[in-house]
């Protein structure tokens, strides 16, 4: 099992020193990856409901602080030597396709092949409109972008023709260091996201708190994985070839907290033994990567949580 630190570029993560300190502490504590979220611009008036909270409220809507995701990951790659860097998730249609492919390839080369591309189609219609991106066809655009990325990263003379992406006979270099490009983890829990995973992804990377498809216990997550595997079998892909991850979006606590429906203990809350039990249960359903928001009101508290989790949970599983 690989554990990662999930960061959001607001709150604590708004300065060079904090981001660097947390990334280096995660590396020392035995975490395998660190993720950065993705928003470029926040509208002054937001009506789109956030899919991962009850009631649809989004915590960043008031202040709008957000570093550029790819610039932040490029910075973090220079602060670390072993830690993998995950886009969690990159809203694929937000940026120009060729430029994005170039930025990702550059990060992969300069990080010595440590980039993981977590991707999603997006949810905030207002942000799409501000960026001039196609919200109504975001699913089609996302699929075309991912196909175009692979073409640019692998072909000698890349060419692609689609509704949203068109280019031919170009020279694209350097290629990513990882053969075929960075692994693609598809975020989202919808049927469209599951199909995208099967057709275009190396792995599935759902969140546990989607209000339309809660996966906040191992048993509920197992149901989602079964749906993914059924689609894979229908599409002729071996389900075992699909890597499985999870982002645990609820706040991390060292005291037990209930799930939204009060039916069970929320994963990765409670005692160290509780968290080890969560780890074992998730491994049993096939999860190989877990991203956690360990939180902390101060840098000191954040570092304490990282160190304790590394020692008591990650270290105990080695």
Produce a short descriptive summary.
The protein contains 9 helices and 10 strands. By secondary structure, the chain is of the alpha/beta class. The protein has one domain (2-317): TIM Barrel (Alpha-Beta Barrel).
The CATH architecture can be named as Alpha-Beta Barrel
CATH superfamily label? Luciferase-like domain
Tell the overall outline.
globular
Helical residue percent? Answer: 25-40%
**How many structural domains does the protein architecture include?**
1
**How is the main sheet built?**
8 strands, parallel, barrel
Portion in beta strands: 5-15%
Q: Determine Rg (CA atoms, Å).
A: 19 Å
Instruction: State mean pLDDT (0 to 100 scale).
Output: 95
How is the quaternary structure best described? Answer: single chain
User: Structural class, from helix and strand content?
Assistant: alpha/beta
Strand order of the largest sheet: 1-2-3-4-7-8-9-10
CATH class: Alpha Beta
Query: Strand-and-helix sequence, N→C?
Result: EHEHEHEHHEEEHEHEHEH
Q: Output the number of helix runs.
A: 9
Distance between the termini: 9 Å
Indicate the CATH topology.
TIM Barrel
Unreliable residue stretches: none
Total DSSP E strands: 10
Give a verbal description of the structure:
By secondary structure, this protein is an alpha/beta fold. The chain has a single domain, classed as Luciferase-like domain (TIM Barrel), CATH 3.20.20.30. It is about 40% helix and about 15% strand. It has nine helices and ten strands. It has helices spanning about 15-30, 70-80, 95-110, 125-130, 140-155, 190-200, 220-235, 270-285, 300-315; strands at about 1-5, 35, 85-90, 115-120, 160, 165, 185, 205, 245-250, 290. It has an eight-stranded parallel β-barrel, surrounded by four helices. Helix 2 (about 70-80) links the parallel strand 2 and strand 3. Helix 1 (about 15-30) packs parallel to helix 9 (about 300-315) and helix 3 (about 95-110) packs across helix 5. The model has no long low-confidence stretch (mean pLDDT about 95).
């Amino acid at each position: 099992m690989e554990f990662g630190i999930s960061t959001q570029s607001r709150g604590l993560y708004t300065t060079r020193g904090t981001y660097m300190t947390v990334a280096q502490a995660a590396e020392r504590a035995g975490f395998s990856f660190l993720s950065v979220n993705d928003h470029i611009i926040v509208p002054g008036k937001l009506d789109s409901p956030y899919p991962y909270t009850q009631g649809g409220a989004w915590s960043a809507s008031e202040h709008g602080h957000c570093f550029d995701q790819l610039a932040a990951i490029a910075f973090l790659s220079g602060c670390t030597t072993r830690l993998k860097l995950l886009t969690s998730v990159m809203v694929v249609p937000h940026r120009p396709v060729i430029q994005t492919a170039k930025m990702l390839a550059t990060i992969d080369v300069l990080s010595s092949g440590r980039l993981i591309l977590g991707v999603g189609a997006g949810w905030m219609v207002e942000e799409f409109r501000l960026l001039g991106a196609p919200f109504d066809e975001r699913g089609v655009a996302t699929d075309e972008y991912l196909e175009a990325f692979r073409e640019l990263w692998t072909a000698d003379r890349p060419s692609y023709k689609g509704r949203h992406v068109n280019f031919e006979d170009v020279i694209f270099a350097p290629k990513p260091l990882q053969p075929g490009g960075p692994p693609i983890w598809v975020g989202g829990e919808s049927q469209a996201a599951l199909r995208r995973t099967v057709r275009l992804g190396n792995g599935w990377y759902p969140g546990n708190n989607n209000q339309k498809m809660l996966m906040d216990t191992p048993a509920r997550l197992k149901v989602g994985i079964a749906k993914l595997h059924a689609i894979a079998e229908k599409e002729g892909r071996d389900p075992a070839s699909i890597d499985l991850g999870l982002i645990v979006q609820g706040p991390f606590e060292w005291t037990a907290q209930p799930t939204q429906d009060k039916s069970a203990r929320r994963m990765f809350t409670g005692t160290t033994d509780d968290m080890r039990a969560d780890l074992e249960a998730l491994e049993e359903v096939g999860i190989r990567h877990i991203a956690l928001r360990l939180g902390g009101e101060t840098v000191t508290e954040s570092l304490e949580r990282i160190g304790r989790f590394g020692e008591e949970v990650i270290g105990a599983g080695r």
